[in-house]
Amino acid sequence: MADKILHAVYDDDDKLMDAVKDLRSSNFSIDEVYTPFPVHGLDKALGLKPTRLAILSFIYGCIGFCFAIFMMNYIMIVDWPQNIGGKPSFSFIENLPSFVPIMFELTVFFAAHLMVITFYLRSKLWPFKEAENPMPSTTDDKFLIEIKFNGDGKALKAAVKKTDVLEVKIIDNKESN
User: FRET partner for 166 with CA separation of 20 to 30 A, picked from 71, 104, 146, 173?
Assistant: First the structure.
């Protein structure tokens, strides 16, 4: 684990983007960036991989669709068939047009709710979780780059100071070990 953490504070998102690009081109590994709002293109500048949450959303929608078909077939055809509006109660296929809204709603319901649960689990957000934000002003108007390093970090400090940085802090990480 790294001995020290460098916090570079910026007051503008354009300055932040330029600093991230400069530090990445100088082969420094940026551990985390805290911003008060989403910064367009920051994920590409940090070299993050695209998310696979869309694939999970599709799978969750398919689960909801299959559940809707199973539920409607069991309830309306197998368990308790009723003559509602003269529709045949013995065939799922003949009743399919009236089941389409239910299939759509359950597909969206499952995809939405399971995606929220997956997002919270993936982000490690759960009730009563302590905030991990090292600087509260990053929720208001400041931007922070966090870089973990070992040794004195003179080259890192020099590279950060070349950017239009507002403030640089070095934090000893030994107490968190």
Answer: 173
Q: Supply the range of the domain harboring residue 98.
A: 54-122
CA-to-CA separations, 100 to 65, 66, 70, in angstroms, rounded: 10, 12, 13
Q: Are residues 111 and 165 in the same domain?
A: no
Rounded to 5 degrees, φ, ψ at 168 are -125, 130
d(CA 3, CA 16): 24
Task: Give the C-alpha separation, 137 to 143, whole Å.
Answer: 8
Ordered DSSP codes for 125-168? --TTPPP--S-GGGGTT-EEEEEEE-S--HHHHHHHHHS--SEE
Angle, CA of 144, 26 and 168, to the nearest 5°: 30
Q: What is the pLDDT along the chain (177 residues), one digit of tens a residue?
A: 678 899 999 999 999 999 999 999 999 999 999 999 999 999 999 999 988 889 999 999 999 999 999 999 898 888 887 777 766 667 777 778 888 999 999 999 999 999 999 999 988 888 888 888 898 899 899 999 999 998 888 899 999 999 989 999 988 876 554
Q: How many CB atoms lie within 10 A of CB 85?
A: 6
Contact status, residue 28 vs residue 147, Cβ threshold 8 Å? yes
pTM score of the predicted model: 0.71
Looking at the domain assignment, is residue 26 inside a domain?
yes
Give the amino acid at 125.
L
